[in-house]
Write a structure and sequence with these properties.
The chain is of the alpha/beta class. Helix content is 35%, strand content 17%. It is built from eleven helices and ten strands. The strands form two sheets. It has an eight-stranded mixed beta sheet, with helices on both faces.
């Protein structure tokens, strides 16, 4: 039985600074998008920063939680729907995008956000990405790219740099890594943005733009794995490597976006955005034409 505080049981004292911080968090509205389940990620994981950016964007856009659906596959991001307030679907390995697409097709009024790691999205699930992109399904796909398989204890992933020592490449990774940004652009995505989990404040405008875009929004966030990667994507190494996309960059120019993607530099921001009919738009046209006949 729970007992109320008595004179013999004083209430815990909360430091004034912590109290003000908690009040600010409550007023910000981000807790309206978080469930009571606490994340199980390692302390220091970049996924916390990504989640903060997502909840901030949802709060500022005032998207009702009952309109949200979070879809995940397998990996460290697999249990993401458990940590968010809204509908959720924890799917099987690599099948995040087909299920997220089906949800959006079945109920276009829902806001669908698919999440997954570089392995889930570019290895076993890599074959689904071009088809979700070419259909221009109106959903957002957030890739948590840490360059390694974290959940299964540090094996090489599709984005692990050549030469890196991992659990499956003890003498160095012999394979050339994928360039996810070029992959999304070459497949023809109607929106692509990149960011870094170590710059959480810069993630807010990225996610606001992605959630506001009509069509397939691909957001690739580089994030450290503090447990299994101490040489490649680390907070110390990446601290000064990231730069904002130049203000002069034309976001509607696919060639300029590809030049940025191939530059070898680390940019954050919206790299490409283009308005074009979504799958829902084309489906409505087909329905109208069918009714006329």
């Amino acid at each position: 039985m729970n007992q109320a505080n008595t004179p013999d049981q004083p209430k815990p004292i909360i430091h004034a600074g912590v109290s003000r911080f908690l009040e600010d968090v409550q007023k910000s509205g981000i807790l309206n998008y978080r469930s009571e389940s606490l994340p199980t990620w390692c302390p220091g994981c970049g996924y916390y920063g990504i989640t903060h950016g997502i909840t901030q964007a949802l709060s500022e856009l005032e998207i009702p939680s009952h309109e949200l659906v979070f879809v995940s596959g397998i990996g460290c991001a697999g249990r993401y729907p458990f940590f968010m307030k809204g509908y959720g679907f924890h799917t099987i390995h690599g099948r995040t995008l087909p299920i997220a697409s089906g949800i959006k097709m079945a109920n276009p009024r829902l806001r669908v956000i698919a999440v997954g790691g570089d392995g889930d999205g570019f290895a076993i699930g890599g074959g689904h990405l071009p088809h979700a992109i070419r259909r221009n399904i109106d959903l957002t796909y957030v890739v948590f790219d840490n360059g390694i398989y974290g959940l299964t204890k540090g094996q090489a992933s599709p984005t692990t740099p050549q030469g890196q020592i991992t659990a499956t490449t003890p003498y160095g990774n012999p394979e050339q890594p994928l360039n996810p940004t070029m992959l999304g652009l070459s497949y023809g995505t109607s929106f692509l943005a990149t960011g870094y989990a170590g710059l959480p404040h810069e993630l807010l405008p990225i996610f606001k733009a992605a959630f506001s875009h009509r069509g397939f929004s691909l957001v690739i966030i580089t994030t450290p794995c503090v447990t299994f990667d101490s040489v490649n994507i680390t907070y110390d190494r990446f601290r000064h490597l990231w730069h904002p996309i130049p203000a002069s960059h034309p976001v509607s120019d696919i060639r300029s976006a590809m030049m940025l993607a191939m530059s070898g530099e680390h940019y954050y921001g919206v790299m490409f955005s283009e308005d074009r009919p979504t799958w829902d738009d084309r489906w409505e046209t087909i329905q109208r034409n069918a009714r006329k006949k």
